[in-house]
Fold this sequence. Notes:
mainly beta; seven-stranded mixed beta sheet; six-stranded antiparallel beta sheet; globular
Amino acid sequence: MYTDLLNIHTANEHIPKYHVLYSVAPAVLVYNFWSRSRDHPPDWKNKDHHYTDVHGLPCIEKIVASVDETPEAISTKISGTIPEWISGNFLRNGPGKFEIGNNKFNHWFDGMALLHQFKIAGGQVTYKSRFLGSDCYTANSENSRIVVSEFGTVAMPDPCKNFFQRFLSRFELPTSDNDNVSFVTYKGNYYVSTETNFMHKVDPETLETKEKVDWSKFIAVNGATAHPHTDPDGTTYNMGNSYSAKGAIYNIIRVPPTKTTPENPEETLEGATVVCSIPSVDKARPSYYHSFAMSENYVVFIEQPIKMDLLKIVTGKLRGKGISDGVYWDPKLETIFHLINKQAGKLYSVKYHAKALSTFHQINAWEENGFLVMDLCAADDGKAINNYMVQNMRKSGEALDEVYNTMCRVFPRRFVLPLNVDMETPCGQNLNTRPDSTATATKTAKDKVFCTHEDLHDEELHKYGGLEFPQINYAKYNTKPYRYFYGCGFRHLVGDTLIKMDLQGKRMKVWEHPGLYPSEPVFIPLPGATEEDEGVIMSVVITPNKDKSTFLLVLDAKTFKELGRAEVPVNIPYGFHGTFNSTMTHRRLLSEKKLGGPSE
């Protein structure tokens, strides 16, 4: 995850006038969490900001090592049992190359996109990977140097040019199309995305790069997030910024569920529209956002105090600075939740405020009895984006501990937003009347409600460094009341445990193994399932201290016990996000409840 591209539009222009690269930290990795050290337990004294003082973190240098692609499918070694009902492609995205010639990328989010496929059928698994055929990957490879700037890396002028040509190149702002964050779907097609103007259509069977798609050719926005939301009918919502003489604007985007011209196999984003536009509170310093929340009837945009100084970003190359130089945390600001009616395209006049927090991933949101309930992963600090420099992740000993200890941990929280606030609503009293909820919502002005959160965890989660990369049974429970979510615990710079959270009693189950670093868990439902957690969890587990032993892990989502694993005989770097491309064409009998055998 990683860099974002902002195209700056002049008023009423549909085609971008400038392209400005700005950062969007990947998911979760903007925070840190707990140590494995049993000799030096974490310091819990500063709970307001969730920092710790740990010692003895193991080196994870190989997690950010460049690897070769594996374009032809290779077999894996199966231990335990991969349930035979699973049929499809588990797709993953993330950085896979951190050096071009003698040039090195500075930030983890800068690495060239490497796409991964675990093909699962009949209890067997094959693996392949391909570098995304982006323009920046091609240009970098052909020139044997970094040609296009990324989030934390400034491309240097061509040494073969004369002085005047090198000087002029400082004013060029080529855009990156290095889509290394996630796989997304629009109208049934698979794309890889970051948060720039550009996505690439990808064949989920071959991982072949098919087509580069530019959002600004369809609507006047400057990119879109790598985390869209989809309604049951297939309508997809996303968010992207635009820029004009009036300043920065946040836009809610809607993409229709089916092709506007079914006979056209090349159709991409035709029919996309801007549903609603929200002016930034600070026109020259809009908030950075990685994702947003969505209920049945509302989009919730979270305007957080992670800010982007547009002037610094635009002039960064002149000063020899990366985009990251223009991204900063302002703890003096409050967080604002904006509600947008999806059908009417209307911005709700009431603004919901909270103390300064940073959030990269939301868990779920739904409406119930006059309230919008929103669950998210959040931290009390947002300064950690720039800590994920490659050199930091390759440190060891006390230097690595120091990087980790400066970062704030992330925990799951719940906000309850009352929907029926009007002129008659009294000020100064808690409007949250939901039973057993400790979240508050207090009207403080005619158009302002101040909210405090409820923790969705107990003290046990502190032992695992908080939780990020949250996932749910999305197909059945997104925008609906739910009970379970899954994520990674963070006792290191990256996830080192898998966690299942049960909201009834805030109980948790954990999968962990020393020296293993699991990726974002993805839930795959059992066909015909009648219970929310009936299915499996998949995660790619990285083994930086053991060569060529990365594996695909399959857990029973209900018991959180290991069913099986598929060991891959090549090295794989730690990635960001993934999805499951199902090819299941049958339904198992409901009487056959067994997910698979125990692991060996």
